[in-house]
Amino acid sequence: MGDATSAANSKSSDGATIRASEAAHFGRLAADWWDPRGSSAMLHRLNPVRLEFVRAAIDRHWAKDVAGFHPLAGKRALDVGCGAGLLAEPLARLGAEVTGVDAAAENIAVARDHAAKAGFDIAYHAGELGELELGTFDLVTCMEVIEHVASKPALIAALRLALADEGLLILSTPNRTPQSKLLLVEGAELTGLIPRGTHHWDDFVTPQELTDLLTAAGLEVTETRGIAWRPDKGLHLSDDSSLNYILAARRA
After folding, report:
1. Tens digits of per-residue pLDDT, 183-219?
2. What is the pLDDT of residue 194?
3. With bands split at pLDDT 50, 70 and 90, how would you rate the model's confidence at 157?
4. Where do the structural domains in the chain lie, given as residue ranges?
5. 68 vs 59, residue with greater confidence
6. Which of 31, 93, 96, 184 has its CA 20 to 30 A from that of 44?
7. β-pairing, 244-251 with 163-174?
8. In sequence order, what DSSP letters do the residues of 72-118 get, joined into one string?
9. Four-point Cα dihedral 174, 156, 140, 170, nearest 10
10. How far is CA 67 from the centre of its chain?
């Protein structure tokens, strides 16, 4: 791994974002992605917290149907780095026409199968977002992805191109702090909560670094919240972003 600065500002010459080794790692986990006690157990714990932020951000951004069950009705949503659909399916429940993109074809196969069995019509694609020509979306989500890509600026550029003029972008990622290294890398992998080799601490991005990347791409951050952990509360939205954080942005 390079140093933290080069990790946060790395660029690939062709705009590619996929690291083959990362895609292979997550592809090997595809079969039990939907098992809350399996290799994606941490994502199952994290997902309700992310959805809490997503729903509140949707209500603020569009300011309608705030009490309804389908605030995304009539809107297109894109989940980048969708895995096997853990976030894409809840977005469909919120009424969106959902598209999911992932680097691992194994994940997409599991996502399609799970969506079909659950009765969701979700369009899933494997490959580089920038090469798929999917059009623009009202909502773009990219959760726990930017720390795994070959080029962070290239990913942000692709997300911006996918975002409609009045759209909402939501990202989450671990922060690069001593706390995240101890708990999310060393502790979580040692105890089996996260498969070994999932996280590379040098590739984590601080909130300021991510804000700078978004600003450079012509995006404006509108809210940032920490995702913290306490023994009595588990994972929860917080003002403490030392472990993980989630933010909302729009075109500037």
Report:
1. 888 887 777 778 888 889 999 999 999 999 999 999 9
2. 83
3. very high
4. 4-251
5. 59
6. 96
7. antiparallel
8. TTT-EEEEET-TTTTTHHHHHHTT-EEEEEES-HHHHHHHHHHHHHH
9. 40
10. 25
